[in-house]
Write the structure tokens for this entry.
Amino acid sequence: MAIIEPARYCPRCGRPIEATEPASTGPLARCGDADCGYVQYRDPKVAAGVVATIEGRILLVRRNHEPARGRWSFPSGYVDAGEAVEAAAVREVREETGVEVRIERLLGVYSGPGEDVIFVAYAGDVTGGEPAPGDEASEVALFAPDELPALPFPHDDAIIEAWRASR
Ligand SMILES: [Zn+2]
């Protein structure tokens, strides 16, 4: 799924610009004006998430927005520019579930051909707060590790495997 759309007008000179085809990994668009030469790069986005536990059970949120609306998922979200990745992971857990989490270890960095998002997964321990859904979740619940619902994103199974292997 493309999350970054090619620009229609050059942000440097204002002329209409054409998307490059195909735009699978290279630049999204180039300005056709030789004196301008602007190139819109297809930079990846970084997201972070946490397999967070309370007494051995895993905290999941039911998403109330696309993608994967209605599905259970780890609390996760995009890292802001200027923000440490670990801090973004802690913030996303707080925003989506209402609890404080302490990051314990890196589970892995996940990416793949054609994917716009690089996903950084951590394991963490909940240190305080009562689970309650934030703006981006309709429910929060704890699941036993062997009773997890089917998770929606491409690397979720690998993340759970990494969590089990490093417990
Ligand atoms: Zn231009």
